[in-house]
Every structure is written in C-alpha cells, then in structure tokens.
Design goal:
single chain; Rossmann fold; about 20% strand; disordered C terminus
Length: about 325
C-alpha cells in the first residue's frame, strides 16, 4: 500500500507537515511550533496533559500542592494544615510536589514493518513525527532529551543532554534512518525483528540513567516475552509511556481482492474475498492488540494508540495523561 500525496487544496492542518513515505528534516524541526501550541510548556506543567510524564513524582517541599495527610515525625511544622487539623482533631500536613530533573528518552522504531501506510502517510513517518513533538516538548520545559532510533540494520543513540543542539542531533539521526527505509538494501534484516527489538531494549537499559521518562514508539507487533522482561527491567526505576502506531488496514482487511503483502521479512499473497479469511484477519489483529495492552498494563505503563489516518496533535492534546505520576 502506498501513501496519498499532498494536493494544493489540502488545508488539513493536523497533517500539514507529513505526507508520503519518508520524512524531511525541516518538517521535523518545524514541529517545534506544534509542541508549543499543544501546551506542554513548563509554566502550564501543573495543568498540562503531560503533567505526569514530564514532572517528577517525588514528594517534598515545593511549589505545587500534592495532598493533605496525617502529620509524621520530621515533617515541617510550617506546612501543618490547621483547618484540617482542627476539623479532625489530628495533626495534618500539606505535601507538595518537588520538581526534580527527569530526563526524557525516546526509543523509536524505524524498522521495515513501520514502512507501511494506506492513508496519508507511513507508520514510520508518524513515529518520527510523534518523537519530534515529544522531543521539542521536553526541550521547551528545559529537560534533558536523548534517544535511541533503530532500524533492521543499524541504530543511532543520542545521550540525554539539554539544549537545541541535542534535539537537532536526535532529529537528524531520526530523519536519516527514516529515509533509509526507502532503500531496499537498508531494509535487509541482520536478525529477526523480535531479536532486534530485544537487543535495542538491552542497549537502552545500559544507556538510560535511573529516574528517566522513557517513550517507546513503534507498532510493537513482534514484542514477545523476552522483550517484556527487558521492559519490566526498564520500568523498575523509570517511567514508561508507550505509543502504539498502526494503520487502519492492519486492523481490518481491505476490500475483497487478491493482495501481495510483506512485513519486511517475508512476502505472502492474501485473498480478502474469502469472508472467513477477513473475519480471522481482524481477529488476529485484535489478539495482537490485546497482548500489547496486556504487556504495558502489567507494568502500569499508559499506552496511546495512533493511526496513520489520525491527527497526531489532536490525539496527544485530548489524551488524558494526568495519571502518569
């Protein structure tokens, strides 16, 4: 399946930057404006959709009120809530959220299975776009930004640092691997995708420092039990948000016809005129999706699903991320 191309009359601002099979660096850079407009800035942190992801859950003395609880030995007496204390006849103290540095690290899938799209653009481009928005969002808040982008043949690692240069370096590597997917030679796998993803997760575990906000962005179609072990390990001392990228045609079989399809490793022919096949096709995807949700639910990590036909900005803006604490 290919991707529709932009026309001169296209005024859909939600998809104004990305059309087709590959990204462009200038477009990834331009998403800085989108990140700002969505409202992830530090000044709005307390009410932001991203409040839980890009601020620490460590409690202490700070500016943002967290809760009122029973007074404990060692608490600052200046924070005693006298109204609650008088009402309950037991001493209570106010607790505040202390903002501490939590770097943001993005792990982005740019492998062969992502090089697919039946709508406006490809999954690989959607993933690049999402990663760009999050990277710029973290930068706008003054956080350190780093990442690991991987394809079937290589990977690029950017150490978490603060500043525009780091974000631009990350975007440059992201764009390079994204465009590499257009070359068949660059999509020849060195290993199976399951093994490749586990390898990347292990590398991330040795690269990422504790107390980091980790964003996993990809289709997760081949995330197996071995990969889950690595994710569990990452989740022990870090916060994880998963962004699942999919194409509508993966969830529901295309109109009746004979098709040749590939997952980047092997090619098969399918006949969607067969009603039983079409039914099993959808069921197979539903089972995969349930497994993906189960994996991240097990480690209490939120999961956002974004389609190649959706407005990324709208999904990110409307999604309730306040529970990422």
């Amino acid at each position: 399946m290919g991707a529709k191309q932009r026309t001169g009359n296209d005024t859909n601002t939600s998809n104004r930057y990305f059309f087709g099979a590959t990204s462009e660096l200038k477009d990834l850079i331009a998403l800085r404006q989108v990140a700002s407009s969505i409202g992830y800035q530090k000044k709005n942190r307390a009410n932001s959709q991203m409040a839980g992801l890009l601020s620490s859950s460590i409690k202490g003395k700070g500016m943002d009120f967290e809760e009122v609880r029973s007074y404990q030995p060692g608490d600052d007496v200046r924070n005693i809530d006298w109204k609650v204390t008088a009402r309950t006849l037991n001493p209570h103290t106010k607790v505040f959220t202390e903002e501490k540095e939590r770097p943001v690290f993005l792990i982005v899938d740019q492998s062969a299975s992502m090089f697919f799209g039946s709508k406006i653009t490809f999954k690989s481009v959607v993933a690049a776009r999402i990663a760009s928005i999050f990277a710029w969002s973290a930068h706008e808040q003054g956080d350190k930004v780093g990442g690991l982008i991987y394809s079937d043949v290589s990977h690029k690692t950017v150490r978490a640092k603060r500043g525009v240069k780091t974000v631009l370096s990350f975007l440059n590597h992201l764009n390079e691997l994204n465009n590499g997917l257009a070359s068949k030679r660059e999509r020849e796998p060195l290993v199976g995708k399951e093994a490749r993803m586990v390898e990347v997760l292990r590398l991330a575990r040795t690269t990422i420092k504790e107390q980091t906000s980790i964003l996993l962005i990809g289709d997760f179609l081949n995330l197996d039990d071995t990969g889950l072990i690595e994710i569990r390990s990452l989740a022990r001392r870090n916060q994880i948000l998963a962004v699942h990228v999919f194409d509508p045609i993966e969830a529901q079989a295309p109109r009746p016809n004979l098709y040749s399809i590939t997952d980047g490793f092997k090619r098969i022919r399918i006949n969607t005129s067969d009603k039983e096949f079409a039914k099993n096709y959808s069921k197979h995807y539903e089972n995969k999706l349930k497994k993906i949700h189960s994996i991240f639910s097990e480690i209490n990590s939120p999961l956002i699903s974004i389609s190649t036909g959706e407005s990324i900005e709208t999904v990110l803006f409307n999604h309730k991320l306040a529970n990422l604490k």
